[in-house]
Amino acid sequence: MYSSLLIIHNLFRWIAFLLLLYAIYRAFTGYRSNNPFSAADNSFRHWTATVLQVQLMIGFILYFNSPFVQAYWNNSGDDTFFAIVHAALMFTAVTIVSVGSAMAKRKTTDLEKFKTMLTWFGIGLLIILIAIPWPFSPLAQRPYLRIS
Fold this sequence. Notes:
This protein has 148 residues and is mainly alpha-helical. The chain is built from five helices and no strands.
């Protein structure tokens, strides 16, 4: 089950990342052009937060079943990045996007909705970019796409 969930997680993380980028793009263009906040904008706001929350839940399942994390907590591993840093930053990022989505939903003007979405989703994206184990990172290196 762990390997099947890992495959789903690897695919879904890119979907979540691209959806977040597109939602930020929509918020930026809507804010800059003073566009009306359409039903499509609202859907992207909602589904971006929802997909990130689902991705976080999948990540938690993998986290609690990960041999790297179990080794770390048993004092026999040294993978602090995945045991603490990655999980904490991703949780923080998804929380920020979720709060931003809820706040944008409650704003009264279209410009405020776009600005709120752009700000909170942008901060969430920044934290996600910091938490990703990039192939060039000194903390943890992972390929862009893992097959196994």
